[in-house]
Amino acid sequence: MPDTSISASLRQSFLAGLLALLPLFITWKVLSFAFTTVDGVLGERLNTLLQTVTQSTVHIPGLGLVATGLLVLLIGYLSRKLFFKRALVLVEGLIDRVPVVRSLYAASRQIVVPFTDKAKLPFSKVVLAEYPMKGRQTLGLLAREHATDDPADDRAVVFFPSNHLHLGYPVLMPRAEFEVLEMSVEDAIKFFVSCGVVGDGKLLRAAR
């Protein structure tokens, strides 16, 4: 009996140790990846340039990460400007002429654009439905008001996404089986991405 108790205690202690170390390990791996991949590629070049200009042996860790972050911010800022959008259209036109690259770029844009460009959001309303079974309420996005062109068909197309957004299930549902909420599509996307952590009272309020 004591041996069993000691064995159980050791297993619990070992499991507790793993659970305590796991967040540290994940954090370390993410930071290691960032520094070896992102900083390693751009940081070494920037440090070499800095050493050449200053005629010194100075080396700044993380310089590549900082430069990458600033570059992303700059591209994000420029992407909101009209001239950059026109330039991007020209670049996309060139990409569209390359067979393999064209397919990869088009596929990635189909995944990203619907959830980042408000003008191209394919969803009009946020709904609440008993899905996938009775008694289980699930947030969904109204993809199409009418599933078919038949006036007698009152079904709509509701998309139930996961927190990956582009993954989910389009379901044909009678309108009586869901209610439209006051929540905006943008707020619903925040709800999905945060796995339900981010949300407000609009989740419970039906549109009037």
Write a short abstract of this structure.
Helix content is 53%, strand content 15%.
What does this molecule look like?
The protein has about 210 residues and is α+β, with helices and mostly antiparallel strands. It has three domains: about 1-80, no CATH class; about 85-120, no CATH class; about 120-205, SH3 type barrels (Roll). About 55% of the residues lie in helices and about 15% in strands. It has a five-stranded antiparallel sheet. A hairpin with a 6-residue loop joins strand 3 (about 155-160) and strand 4. Helix 1 packs across helix 2. The radius of gyration is 25 Å and the shape is flat. The chain starts with a helix and ends in a 15-residue tail after the last helix. The mean pLDDT is about 80.
Fold-level CATH name of the largest domain: SH3 type barrels
Give the spatial strand order of the biggest sheet: 4-3-2-1-5
Strand content: 5-15%
User: Alpha-carbon distance between the termini?
Assistant: 66 Å
Largest sheet: 5 strands, antiparallel
Overall average pLDDT? 78
Whole-number tally of structural domains = 3
Discrete helix count: 5
What would you say the CATH architecture of the largest domain is?
Answer: Roll
Report helical residue fraction.
40-55%
Q: Kindly provide the radius of gyration, computed on alpha-carbon positions and rounded to a whole number of angstroms.
A: 25 Å
Gross morphology: flat
Helix and strand sequence: HHHHEEEEEH
The total of beta strands comes to 5
What is the CATH first-level class name of the largest domain?
Mainly Beta
- Low-confidence parts: none
> What structural class do helix, strand and pairing data support?
alpha+beta
